[in-house]
Predict the structure.
Amino acid sequence: MDEILKILEKDARTSPEDIAKMTGKKISDVVKTIKKYEKEGVILGYKTIINKELIEDDDNEVRALIEVNVTPQKDVGFDRIAERIYQFPEVTSCYLVSGTYDLLLVVEGKNIHTVSNFVAEKLSPMDNVRGTVTHFLLKKYKENGVILKHKEENKRIAISY
C-alpha cells in the first residue's frame, strides 16, 4: 500500500505538509495524490472513532454482529443478496466470509428490540436467507486499531456474612 495511504489510515488528520515531511515528497505532490485517491474511490471518506462509553448520553445505540446463511443466486453468487441486505439503514457493515456462515453484518439500533425487530421482520424473511445468529456487543475494548479507555467502575466493598 502507498505510504500516503498508510499514514492517512493511521490518522486522517495528518496534514499534507506533515505527510510531505514524513515521506520526503513535495506538498503539491501529496495533495495531488490524495485528490486522485479520493476521485478514484480509493479514499472513500474520513471517520472519527468515538468512544461512546465515555459520553454521558442516553442515546447510545446497541450494536450486534449477525451471522447470515444465504443461498447464493445463479450467475451472481452472494453479491445480489448482500447488496439487498446492506441497503438497510440498520446495517453499518456487510462482509462475505468463509466458514459456517456466509455474510457477517454489523447492525446498529436504538435498543435491543430495534435490532431484534430488524432480524425478525426484515432480514430473516428475505428470499435466500436460510438462517441467522445474532451476537450483541456488550463492551468494546479496541476498535479500528485504537484501544478504548473505559469509565472507572464503581469500587464495591466486599460484604461477607
Observations:
- The first strand starts at residue 62 and ends at 70.
- The mean pLDDT is 91.
- The helical segments are 3-10, 16-23, 27-40, 79-86, 112-123.
